[in-house]
Amino acid sequence: MKICVIGIGHVGLVTSAGFAQLGHRVIGVDNDIKKIKGLMRKTVPFYEPELEKLIRENQKKGRLSFSSSIKFGVKNSEVVFICVGTPPREDGEADLSSVEKVVREVAHSLDDYRTIVEKSTVPVNTWQWIKHTVNLYNKGNTEFDVGVNPEFLREGSAVKDFLQPDRIVIGVENERAKKILLEIYKKINCPKIITNLSTAEIIKHASNSFLATKISFINSVSNLCEKVGADVVKVAQGMGYDPRIGKAFLSAGVGYGGFCFPKDLAAFIHIGEKYGYELTILKAVQKVNEEQRKILVKKVKEALWVLKDKVIGVLGLAFKPNTDDMRLAPSIYVIQMLQQEGARIKAFDPAATLEAKKILHGVKFCQDAYEAAMNSDCLVILTEWDEFKNLDLKKIKKLLKVPVIIDGRNIFDHEKMKKLGFIYKGVGKGDASIFLKK
Ligand code: UGA
After folding, report:
1. Each residue's pLDDT tens digit, 174-195
2. Burial of 136 (0-12, 13-18, 19+ CB in 10 A)
3. Contact 84, 70 (CB under 8 A)
4. Would 266 be classed as within a structural domain?
5. Which amino acid residue places its CA nearest to atom 35 of ligand 1?
6. In the predicted model, is pLDDT for residue 435 greater than 80?
7. CA atoms within a 13 Å half-sphere pointing along the CA-CB vector of 293
8. 249 is in an annotated binding site
9. Residue 258 DSSP symbol
10. Residue-averaged pLDDT of the chain
11. What positions does UniProt annotate as the active site of this protein (predicted)?
12. Which pLDDT tens digit goes with each residue over 399-428?
């Protein structure tokens, strides 16, 4: 099929390359001309495993091209996917101005039937506004349908998530749009949930909110574990074997970040308020998440007493491993809190340094983990990159001024760290012996 994807951000670019890989002819459209020119020269604007290869392959086969013209994209395709950003406003409400602008342009460009599909994460019933706006600006009264097809791509595994998804959700109003969307995903073998447009929209918000709830839940449990001498990793294991609970998203840590969970939770809460329902549970999820970063800073203070003029080495800046994305990363909040206490920060991240430099000030960015450890009073781990798990810990110990490691992601074994002579504090691991001493 001929597909136009509007908005070449993380979601849009993976979606474009993914559709091309499924055999469709795809035009990716973005108003950022620099980005489009870069892509034409095969430069991928962000780090995502497998993506560059997929883009190059499909460009070579002539199935994937890029343009800065919505008109060109719409005229040369049968289906139009909207993947533009929906950033949060101050009050948490999603800013839909980019969606509206794009929809107007799509409406102007319609010359024959098109299925216009909303992929961006939007508040429930946005589809009604899309339909209304197309009707308003579609001077030729050209026929069209609106569809909703939320994405469930995780940064760092987005290509795999696209090509081997757990499920595909399709919201439609009629058989025609349903047939077209099913045809697009024909080659993917997974459960396909066909429903109405509002339900499809809610599925996306409810999924992200539920995952964030799981994280805040296990983080709450981890705080209690620390107090009573239990081990949250084992608690999560013991819970996770129950298929009703599941193992995933039960890693306690310094809290969730990224552009999706914080934004989507705020938007979902806002939708609730708009329709007169308070999503109390999600407000608690947000609160626990904010607390989690403060708890980590408290642990650093407990180890070093005074932070003024102390040098803290930070390992990991990206909001999670395998991405260079720094948006709303826990590292931003933790580093700023440590700086407010007068600490000096040396930091290393395998991929996110360039992005981090745009956000974090007064930080010395290091070439590797060892440089971050050198002469530091403490090492703080904020992202669980694999390369940190394989560090030469004896070397790290020699390099540190004092062997203190505060691990916000539980990447090391507590017993092993103790044996190596570290003062090591992870997340959710209480020392039962202190209670016996009491
Ligand atoms: C999330 C969802 O997982 C995707 O399904 C969804 O499509 C995407 O948002 C979106 O709405 O676009 P993403 O933000 O890429 O994907 O990242 P996740 O892998 O979900 O991680 C989010 C945060 O939760 C990270 O900061 C991670 O460190 C944290 N996390 C995750 C934990 O603290 N504990 C866990 O057990 C799991």
Report:
1. 999 999 999 999 999 999 999 9
2. exposed
3. no
4. yes
5. 249
6. no
7. 21
8. yes
9. S
10. 95
11. 260
12. 999 999 999 999 999 999 999 999 999 999
Domain containing 391 equals 207-437
- 154 in contact with ligand 1, CB cutoff 6 A: yes
Residues 150 and 273 in one domain: no
Given 157, 173, 195, the domain boundary residue is 195
Question: Closest Cα partner for 113 from 68, 81, 66, 74?
Answer: 74
Tell me how far CA of residue 346 lies from CA of 117, 311, 339, 374, 380, in angstroms.
45, 7, 11, 9, 10
Kindly state whether residues 95 and 191 are assigned to the same domain. Answer: yes
- Ligand 1 pocket mutation, candidates 86, 153, 166, 204, criterion most atoms within 8 A of CB: 153
Measured N-to-C along each axis, helices 330-340 and 280-304 cross at an angle, to the nearest 10 degrees, of 50
Looking at residue 88, what is its pLDDT? 87
The reply to whether 189 and 234 lie within a common domain is no
**Residue 154 marked as a ligand binder:** yes
Q: Which three-class secondary structure state does DSSP give residue 264?
A: helix
* Ligand 1 in reach of 217 Cβ (< 6 A): no
Question: Is 260 part of the annotated catalytic residue set?
Answer: yes
Q: What is the pLDDT of residue 312?
A: 98
Pair 46, 8 in one domain = yes
- The fraction of the chain above a pLDDT of 90, given in percent, is 92
Distance, in Å, from the CA atom of 403 to the CA atom of 421, rounded to the nearest integer, reads: 7
91 shares a domain with 48: yes
pLDDT of residue 382: 98
Catalytic residue among 4, 260, 366, 378: 260
Domain count, the chain: 2
Residues 150 and 35 occupy one common structural domain: yes
d(C-alpha 4, C-alpha 423), whole Å: 55
**Ligand 1 centre and the CA of 73: distance in Å?**
31
Q: Are residues 341 and 407 in the same domain?
A: yes
**Looking at the chain, how many residues does it have?**
438
Q: 93: domain CATH number?
A: 3.40.50.720
Q: Tens of pLDDT along 11-52?
A: 999 999 999 999 999 999 999 999 999 999 888 998 889 999
Which of 209, 214, 215 to probe ligand 1 with, by most ligand atoms within 8 A of CB? 215
Same domain, 322 and 362: yes
Whether 55 is covered by a domain: the verdict is yes
